[in-house]
Amino acid sequence: MGAHDAVRTASRALATEAVHAGRDDLARQGLHAPPIDLSTTYPSYDSRGEAARIDTFAATGADPDGPPVYGRLGNPTVARFETALARLEGTEAAVAFASGMAALSAVLLVRASMGLRHVVAVRPLYGCSDHLLTAGLLGSEVTWTDPAGIAEALRPDTGLVIVESPANPTLAEVDLRAVAHACGSVPLLVDNTFATPVLQRPAEQGARLVLHSATKYLGGHGDVLAGVVACDEEFAGRLRQVRFATGGVLHPLAGYLLLRGLSTLPVRVRAASANAAELAHRLAADPRVARVHYPRIGGAMISFEIHGDPHEVIAAVRLITPAVSLGSVDTLIQHPASISHRIVDADDRRGAGVSDRLLRMSVGLEDVEDLWSDLDGALGRRPLGGAGNCANNHNAPAPADTHLPLRR
Ligand SMILES: *Cc1c(COP(=O)(O)O)cnc(C)c1O
């Protein structure tokens, strides 16, 4: 993408970028839908030129100009998705991977290759992110802290600070600006999977790296596994080099589906968020529910603790699908202590606020009355004479806001 294009499109709104970014060249080519380039290799009669492009890539990780070389270096369809996501997050670049975990692994490997193996992280994180750090699978060493303890936890070999906001699964939020400030010169990685750039753009608040499990809202239909890191061009170069060397590339068909998913992202997130806000409101007033967590910034995720047995609720839903993952057009519910955060040590899990009675629900685009009727049935009988116990509810949800702003 040339500087001229970047300037010309700088003032586009998010909803416009969602349907146009990564597609700017199509009309000139006489195309409307983006082509899917499935090539693993690319013919070149100019091996001197190709050698020069490989040298440039080895030195900087910059996307090679000219024809692609080999699928593991980069793919034009995947590049469209990367361009579009970078525009939505307001960063110079984005680098896509085979999954969210492959994306996080690449970030850790970039920093470890610079001798910076220490990571400071705030719980809760997605269960497998927690596990990757705690088990030290990539040779990193983690210090867990709360947001207020970040500055103190930094060491000379700290390569990264990691937070999720809203966090999986408690939907706890951190003040990103304050956290970015506390990080000083250490890169802050914000996992923005739950908020999406529709609700929150962490780069504007000082995050150097914005990570997504694109498997969730970006893809949005439960049929693509992918990850992406939005960041500055310098870090993106290193991520491309690690991706090239370790091979966690995204398949071009997945790249196509993600680009297509982005075009409806603002509409999906706003509609699902309106449903979620309404359900959070009803749950907060329900005597069978002990506590509701719903983020201040909104969103389509709800978590709630119930007085009864969460396994019974999972067994009783009929319209809502009992399944891990999130961010699809349909509503999913799961029990974090059994599934998404099972791999985290039970004490650490509870210490991070993930109670054994917590259920996490990813609200989709169904009619809200149908969702409520399923949830109401699955929650079982109301206690006799039970009045609502709103007083126990924490983070009482804001009223449904169907006019969430496009930009924040
Ligand atoms: C799912 C998830 C991940 C991991 O992504 P995969 O695409 O499953 O590898 C990371 N962070 C968060 C917040 C997630 O929800």
Automatic annotation (TrEMBL):
> What Gene Ontology terms describe where this protein resides (cellular component)?
cytoplasm
Outline the segment boundaries, as ranges, of region: Disordered.
386-408
Asked if the keyword Lyase belongs to this entry, the reply reads yes
Which InterPro entries does the UniProt record give?
Cys/Met-Metab_PyrdxlP-dep_enz, PyrdxlP-dep_Trfase, PyrdxlP-dep_Trfase_major, PyrdxlP-dep_Trfase_small
Q: Name one GO biological process term.
A: cysteine biosynthetic process via cystathionine
Q: Where is the composition biased (Low complexity)?
A: 389-400
Domain of life assignment: Bacteria
Recorded GO MF terms = cystathionine gamma-lyase activity; pyridoxal phosphate binding
Task: Enumerate the UniProt keywords alphabetically.
Answer: Lyase, Pyridoxal phosphate
Which SUPFAM superfamilies would you find in this protein's record? PLP-dependent transferases
Give the cofactors, semicolon-separated: pyridoxal 5'-phosphate
Q: Which residues cross the membrane?
A: none
The answer on whether this UniProt entry bears the keyword Lyase reads: yes
Q: What residues bear N6-(pyridoxal phosphate)lysine in this entry?
A: K216
Family note? Belongs to the trans-sulfuration enzymes family.
**Protein name, entry field:** Putative Methionine gamma-lyase
The record lists the organism as: Streptomyces afghaniensis 772
